[in-house]
Amino acid sequence: MSLHKLRLAAAVPVTISTFSSRLFLKPFPNTLTLGLFSRRLQPRKPLLVRAFSASAAVQDIPATQTSESSARPQWKASIDFKWIRDNKEAVEINIKNRNSNANLDAVLELYENMLNLQKEVERLREERNNVAKKMKGKLESSERERLVEEGKNLKESLVTLEEDLVKLKDELQHVAQSIPNMTHPDVPVGGEDSSAIRKEVGCPREFNFPIKDHLQLGKDLDLIDFDSAAEVSGSKFFYLKNEAVLLEMALLNWTLSQVMKKGYTPLTTPEIVRSSIVEKCGFQPRGDNTQVYSIDGTDQCLIGTAEIPLGGIHMDSILLESALPLKYIAFSHCFRTEAGAAGAATKGLYRVHQFSKAEMFVICRPEDSEFFHHELIQIEEDLFTSLGLHFKTLDMATADLGAPAYRKFDIEAWMPGFGRFGEISSASNCTDYQSRRLGIRYRPSEPLQTGPKKGKANLPATKFVHTLNATACAVPRMMVCLLENYQQEDGSVVIPEPLRPFMGGIELIKPKLK
Amino acid sequence: MKGKLEPSERERLVEEGKSLKESLVSMEEDLVKLKDELQHVAQSIPNMTHPDVPVGGEDSSAIRKEVGCPREFHFQIKDHLQLGKDLDLIDFDSAAEVSGSKFFYLKNEAVLLEMALLNWTLSQVMKKGYTPLTTPEIVRSSIVEKCGFQPRGDNTQVYSIDGTDQCLIGTAEIPLGGIHMDSILLESALPLKYIAFSHCFRTEAGAAGAATKGLYRVHQFSKAEMFVICRPEDSEFFHHELIQIEEDLFTSLGLHFKTLDMATADLGAPAYRKFDIEAWMPGFGRFGEISSASNCTDYQSRRLGIRYRPSEPLQTGPKKGKANLPATKFVHTLNATACAVPRMMVCLLENNQQEDGSVVIPEPLRPFMGGIELIKPKLK
User: Fold this and answer.
1) Which PANTHER family match (chain A) (predicted)?
2) Does the annotation count B307 as an active-site position?
């Protein structure tokens, strides 16, 4: 890019808004019909990106495009642009495999432009310093005048270029934030059908009588009320009654005690958070078909999962290596709009706007995340095996990974009332995707100090942590499984043994006399 | 105009009919507007008041009962915020970054304590014949209004959801009142007695000053709420049953508290009579409200449309027709706090602290916490 052209652009800002068709995003297929936790798929609305032709260095942002600028995150992710540039083939393949709408070409071009502009800014700064230095000496008045003039011009150009640089950096951030995480090499490439089965436990129970689905059981045993909730709140809301309340509490209590034994710290979290935190975790609070409820008149949202306030606990922090790993199990209510989810996969408790969930969250060193991903999936498999569920653990294929996940294991359990498997949990290794956005770093412990002085120069450089999250218990889905699998011919439901002590010893939910 | 008429007579009648029709249309419109205006203005008329309720402001409230006495400490005590920090139980700082002020995370034993409080409360109240429920926490704003709250307007306590007519509940009383709205219940179904758990969300707009420290005033909290729907003649009885349940619960936990009969200026519009319980909070050096039990008589039921049909005595005639059914009446509704977790936590932490910095768990809660007897300072 010629310097002359840059100066021209700086002096006369040019508005260019060309939209080449390749930059419009094709709506990608809706793969959400069963996915409870795959809401982190790329935004469904087309992302408009202005084309940067080779001759224009910088584009002036028109004042009228306020809707887009207000939709921009007001924070910066620490994206490693150099790494992206040096590995662009791998990044491009990854973007394609994930059906992502990220625009790598735009990122690379903007990055290149940004670097060049930065060099130019530095060059002008140096020139201005030189002029200032010269003006300190003894000079002819005409020479002084000339230098003053030159200094003024340089200053004006610098101001303009620096403004352009800021805008360019913002634009670069905005476009680059959509680049999804890289992918674990063992992850199958493809769509839903390509996911690999890692493990299968149990087998479908054989029933010798016509079975009921959980909605019917909920009605007959006076456990679930959807009708009143539809009047009071709307569809996909419900009241739990009688033993179902005890069952929810037993599930949460038992899950907590089991997971605490593995060294996880119990927490409860806020369920209202600032929308910037939601974005930093990789979710999209604004825009059509968002899963996120926003609070009127504030920048706050309701959480869809405790992962969000958990990620926020240590944001903008530097942790000691000795503090890692941090392992949490958090309870919260979760709220989801479920916009865009339609069809048969919304019946009853399977898809609701509000539910209780116990979520595990791990912050660790990069070299340990693979280990903890396996620890988390093992905990989930042990929990569901103890409850006697029939399930399969899937290694989700590339098109089904949310943007933050390097690798994702989903567990689908057999739901006889539906006659198919349904997702009951999800365990993701997000590596440094979230930590780069949330600003969570750690300082590696030092080996033996060689010099006597401990100064900042001797401290090892901080690194980004890795974060992982996994569902320990999503109550409504668990309730679907337990009610449908444990029903008996007389209409009662057996309580799995591990839960009984947490329910005052109740072994059976019996039909009530009317 | 149905009969046989002279054409001039007919014309005159047609003209008269037309004028009447026009006048009617106008007046019917005016009537609708007048009825609307009447509703709007009349809805602010508060419930009547029980004759025994003291007249006046805060200071006129009468003490009905006092249980226990303030514990004497022989060492420097901490408030719940300090205990929460020292024992790694409560984190306000991270929550301020993530969510804003008046939000918090509970950690470690505090999580177990919250669950023990809710589990124990549930089991105690179920023994008195209350049906356990969990409720939606997002409701249509019209339900909030029918219960006597004000979702819109400055200083509202209610969070609204962007782009919808929905709000977050400030108490489970709201979705509980909504369950039977626009219904006619059988007298034999009454009383309906519920104990519901929910998270509650309050903006706390307009609340300022010292009474906002720590867990005392927060935007989100867990609460167990009792709700009763009964015949009018039974509401006084159930008001006393509810306050008795509350007093028994707090006595079992070893709290020092007083039950107040709230004076007229301190009743909310829906309450015919309101008993508040204030417990001693040594860290604050004063009493703080931990529960409230209101008899709303028919204020909420007239708005929510909850009626019942009295059972009939022996039928005299052979035919059972609609004309023979007794007229429906409005039920009475009552609500009472069984456990507001953050306020309970303030009481338990501050009252049960020991000199070495640990906190004793009240006996009734221990079985619900895996037997833990003590929250001990953690080694760092």
Assistant:
1) SERYL-TRNA SYNTHETASE
2) no
